[in-house]
Amino acid sequence: MGQVAGSQRRAPRAVLKFGSSVLRSPADLPWAVQEIYAHVRRGERVVAVVSAFAGRTDALYAAAREHGDCERATAALVAGGELESTALLTLALERAGVPARLLEARAVSLATRGPVLDAEPAGVDVAPFEAALRAGRVVVFPGFCGVGEDGATTLLGRGGSDLTALFLAEHLDARCVLVKDVDGLYERDPALPGPRPRRYARATWEEALRVGGKVVQPKTLHTARLAGRALEIRAIGASGYTRVGGELSCLEPAAAPRRLRVALLGLGTVGGGVYERLLGRPDLFEVVGAVVRDPARHAARGMPAALLATGVWSALAREPDVVVEALGGVDPAAEWLQAALLAGCRVVTANKAALAAHYDTFAPFLQGAAPRLRASAAVGGAVPMLETLARLAGETRVVGLRGVVNGTCNYVLDRLAAGVALDAAVREAQSAGYAEPDPGFDLSGRDAAHKLSLLVRALDRTAASFAVAGIDADTPAREAAARAAGRRLKLVATWDERGARVALEALAADDWLAGATAEENRLELQGADGRVERVHGRGAGRAPTATAVIADLLDFAADGERAAAAASAAA
Ligand code: NAP
Ligand code: HSE
Q: pLDDT tens for residues 357-367?
């Protein structure tokens, strides 16, 4: 996934707090990544405040008690629980392609006052947060810990990570979101049998204190009320939530969560990655079919034979809500995409070749607040290029764009610079899962051209046929010459109102695009008002692409939830 950097306007900010109800163990990390990515896709800068995994704090306190009763040493040991989950979440974000920076209490001088094991935050240096957010990085920060007046580690007591989140939200002027295993406060426990209770869309502090005890610590609510800072209670992947704060409480109908039935077309790098991730959330998704060329090979690798099929019609016969197309190429993908849409399914595709070839057919399905077709992964992998473009286009006329949009070519050029031969570099990109089924699509520049045409069409402009050139046998010599001149050879896709092209360019070393490494993608957008918007992250590979596809699936789930809530309100 990616992040947005470099805008001259201050992007909205969110502090998201992940407690041990949603980060029970490392297995939950990809879903925390998914929630962070959802905010990044909407153009927010995110600080993720992290608690220790479930049971970890108690285990560390017990270990400390076994060996002595020094409070400072206990605090140092117990703080290790938060550091562990913070480091693992940072790694999971990076793997998913979301640029992230781990900051620790000491690096931001998070000063506390009061008892070592029950302190309260008193001051913070926001400069390191500002720098990381400006550079387009998600910040991951351990909750619950600080630095006492004597420089020793301190703990913020029970519910301490909530206090960290509230404190940072106040100092960074950000929304404060507590990410929970329930999507808000309800008039009564929604897990109990009986008709679905209503959810508070808004709750005053008093109402939240009355009904929210099991979901939010009273200490958190008291602290937020004293600071006059509203907070949101949300669940991963849910559209509804409760906002606590203000003068009024109001209830709204809330639909019970419904599992999405998903059929996968393709089980390769992308489809296989999506399948693995969907298995991790049986409460949200049910895979009802998977279409491949060679079912026997997939069954031999452990894929349930009953799910496997070879054509779109057998997948549609299983009545999926959503079809995920990750086949590659134009035929039969474009025809199958159309069949799924005509059958009434929602569709996610990662296939830029099919979209670019039949854009006029698919464009009506891509439009509107609740589109029937979503295709985030088709351009930029986990880098939210289409979303950033749409947001900027909603605010100003976009007059130009330039980007590194093919991960394979960028990876190969990097490896040439490291002295690896062209053939070997291409084989590496293939085995890492970056390359197209036919890597000639990447090397020739055609894949970048498909992405460029989708970006331009998303602006409602057309780029008549444009020049496309990529990597060939002469490229190693050009790369060496560029490097000798202190420049970086990059495959750059460019569009402005005069025309478009895809070409190798020897960029100055301080050009922002020149900094893209390995399979990273970068896109720079120019607004008519002078604004420059930048977005970057991992553009290819299993984890980043699956992250973008799943974000589209979660958006479909949220559309369904909103429609069901509206229907129950009307009933
Ligand atoms: P892949 O690893 O080659 O997987 C393709 C899958 O589709 C395989 O499971 C294959 O079945 C199946 N398939 C292909 N043609 C088929 C047909 N005619 N009938 C039935 N099944 C068929 O490709 P990939 O890398 O996952 O790429 C898939 C799509 O995602 C492409 O459009 C690509 O451009 C896009 N994409 C890829 C990445 C990336 O980093 N790889 C990133 C963004 C977007 P078998 O397994 O039986 O061969
Ligand atoms: N082959 C593509 C690339 C995959 O290398 O960028 C991501 O679209």
A: 999 999 999 99
